[in-house]
């Protein structure tokens, strides 16, 4: 893995530079944004780590240029807690996969970046990048959801403030109410406004609905593919996965569950002829990943992973999307959001989880209860 470290005159990243030099990564070190752009034009790098205060070419400007010109690169920003740079920090968080704040735990940063190398290579292969680039209409990043998620981090969450954010996009607000009133979500009286939806369903459920409404804001004309059913499955997966993890992982599990199949609406838009061929041979409710690979030379997991990479989601979420059809690769880690999303997806499709997965995580005693929970969410 090739890493470019971009520092400033204060040499903020000197210790980080030494750690990467001593490790297995090939590392280059420059001291401003202009030199970074020159290095990128001459050599291929997998990762860029930059401070934000760089002088004429700011770290944010550099990262924006890289996200457009070198989309496969992993982007990491070193921010600070100075109030004068808070706006810059917020801008960086929208175009980075990771942000770290001094004092830096250089060992943790090195370990984090090293651990995501394989996933990055798997989702940024040339044929995936080129195929996605051909799609005329790509889903947009869920901006409103991310705004709401930030509000949920605050201790004094205001329902009216949330309603105002959603109402800023009338089309989104209409979709949220439509989905809130669907038979899948609501068996009571009709919900007439966002504030009522918050009261009836709770903030986290409403945020999930906002996410599904944003991600599936356009309805591709794909014979055999139902956007509504896909929305419902993703929402059910999110809720079931979140019920399996510790409280501190719940929000990430919701997000990973909502996103786990996002690659489908891109994969099926790549080539109409290949898509028609796929739906001709696919088996309903089965694991058709092998068929996707055979027909498209990739699958919705990796396409979805690349989409989230472009949107600058962190790699622990990308891993959950990429791995949710590969339980054998999940056994190396403790039970977390990726494992929960795999298990939720399998149970909601009424399949049997891999025996080695159940045995490894000692789930025999709770499997029946999880199956019943999944049945209620279908």
Describe this structure in words.
- This protein has 378 residues and is of the alpha/beta class.
- It folds into two domains: 2-115, Response regulator (Rossmann fold); 143-377, Hypothetical protein af1432, CATH 1.10.3210.10.
- The protein is 57% helix and 6% strand.
- Strands 2-1-3-4-5 form a five-stranded parallel β-sheet, sandwiched between helices.
- The longest helix has 16 residues, at 227-242.
- The chain starts with a strand and ends with a helix.
- The relative contact order is 0.09.
Number of helices: 23
Q: Which overall shape is indicated by the principal axes computed on the Cα atoms?
A: globular
| Approximate helicity band | 55-70%
Number of strands: 5
Oligomeric description of these chains: single chain
In the CATH hierarchy, the architecture of the largest domain is: Orthogonal Bundle
Write out the strand line-up for the largest beta sheet, numbering strands in chain order. Answer: 2-1-3-4-5
Labels describing this entry:
5-stranded parallel beta sheet; 23 helices; globular; alpha/beta; 5 strands; Hypothetical protein af1432; Rossmann fold; 378 residues
């Amino acid at each position: 893995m090739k890493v470019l470290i971009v520092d400033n005159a204060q040499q903020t990243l000197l210790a980080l530079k030494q750690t990467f030099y001593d490790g297995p990564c090939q590392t280059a070190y420059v001291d401003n944004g202009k030199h970074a752009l020159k290095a990128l034009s001459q050599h291929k790098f997998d990762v860029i780590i930059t401070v934000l205060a760089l002088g004429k070419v700011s770290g944010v400007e550099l990262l924006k240029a890289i996200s457009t010109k070198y989309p496969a690169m992993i982007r990491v920003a070193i921010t600070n807690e100075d109030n004068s740079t808070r706006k810059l920090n917020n801008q960086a968080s929208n175009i980075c996969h990771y942000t770290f704040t001094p004092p830096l735990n250089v060992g943790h940063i090195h370990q984090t970046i090293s651990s995501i190398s394989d996933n990055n290579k798997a989702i940024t292969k040339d044929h995936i990048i080129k195929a996605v680039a051909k799609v005329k209409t790509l889903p947009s990043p869920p901006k409103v959801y991310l705004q709401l998620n930030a509000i949920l981090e605050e201790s004094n969450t205001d329902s009216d403030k949330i309603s105002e954010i959603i109402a800023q996009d009338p089309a989104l607000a209409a979709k949220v109410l439509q989905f809130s009133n669907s038979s899948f979500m609501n068996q009571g009286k009709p919900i007439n406004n966002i504030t009522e939806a918050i009261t009836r369903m709770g903030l986290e459920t409403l945020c999930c609905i906002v996410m599904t409404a944003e991600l599936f804001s356009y309805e591709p004309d794909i014979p055999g593919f139902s956007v509504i059913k896909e929305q419902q499955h993703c929402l059910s997966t999110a809720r079931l996965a979140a019920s399996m993890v510790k409280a501190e992982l719940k929000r990430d599990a919701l997000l990973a569950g909502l996103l786990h199949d996002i690659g489908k609406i891109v994969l099926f838009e790549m080539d109409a002829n290949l898509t028609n061929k796929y739906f001709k041979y696919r088996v309903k409710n089965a694991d058709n990943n092998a068929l996707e690979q055979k027909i498209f030379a990739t699958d919705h997991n990796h396409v979805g992973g690349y989409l989230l990479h472009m949107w600058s989601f962190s790699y622990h979420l990308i891993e959950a999307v990429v791995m949710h059809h590969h339980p054998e690769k999940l056994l190396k880690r403790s039970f977390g959001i990726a494992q929960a999303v795999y298990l939720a997806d399998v149970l909601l499709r009424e399949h049997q989880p891999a025996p080695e997965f159940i045995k490894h995580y000692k789930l025999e005693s709770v499997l029946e209860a999880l199956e019943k929970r999944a049945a209620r969410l279908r």
